[in-house]
Amino acid sequence: MRTKELKIPVLVYHYFGKDRNLQAGIEIQDLNYIVLRDDFMSHIRYLHEQGYQAISFRQMMNARQGLEALPPKPVILTFDDGHQSVYDFAIPILCKYKLQAEIFVAPLKIGTSGYMSWNQLEELVNEGFFIQSHTNSHVLLSKLSQDDIKYELVESKKGIETRLNVTVTALAVPMGGYPRILKTIAREAGYKFVCTSYYGINSIDNDFLYLKRIMIKSPNDKINDLQDLLMSKSFLSFKMRIKNGYKYLRNNLFLVSY
Ligand SMILES: [Zn+2]
After folding, report:
1. How far is the CA of 5 from the centre of ligand 1 (A)?
2. I need a labelling partner for 207 at 20 to 30 A (CA). Which of 61, 66, 183, 228 fits?
3. One-character DSSP codes across 84-119
């Protein structure tokens, strides 16, 4: 298979629980972002059995530049927000299956109730996980001025890099807020990858500053849904593409209220 035809799905998870009850750090309107532990286990087993191999953003870039070959079925696992349940539940499973992941955190949330501490993030860096930016204060960027967007991007990158001695190359936009100007600001701030919440599967020649992801949340968090969304040919994936249209309008035309 030519590298250009290689599909690179990026999955995004937020919170985990044995049920969908309220936990510290999770807003009541976000309970559907809690993925049940059994479902996560099925996802990981499915990916493993199907021969998917987790790669990093850096490997994806290296592959584009011809510096390294990717496995035949790559997948990028991302986790937004840096919630404690990721550390408690998902990380041990990822370690067991030797899966790398990109973890997006907002510095102002780190160490607050329900969220991982800097020490825990440091542990994750030592385990080989990548800590990336989810803006500084977890804010809807499409509502901010250009200067404020720039501040959120620059400050979070600097904060994480200084505290953890890593290089932050990726940004995930909170709550799907991706204004048109963001790409330019992100590039100028030194980001090489920006994750949106638009549904889709990337290929190696896609714009890395506009990466689509597969959002894992209720009610589309069962194993059949994951299979459908990875195949990208089902009714569910069609529905998700329609939703992309609404999100785009919300981000750029302000026709729909938040
Ligand atoms: Zn978030």
Report:
1. 30
2. 228
3. HHIIIIIHHHHHHTT---EEEE-GGGTTSTTB--HH
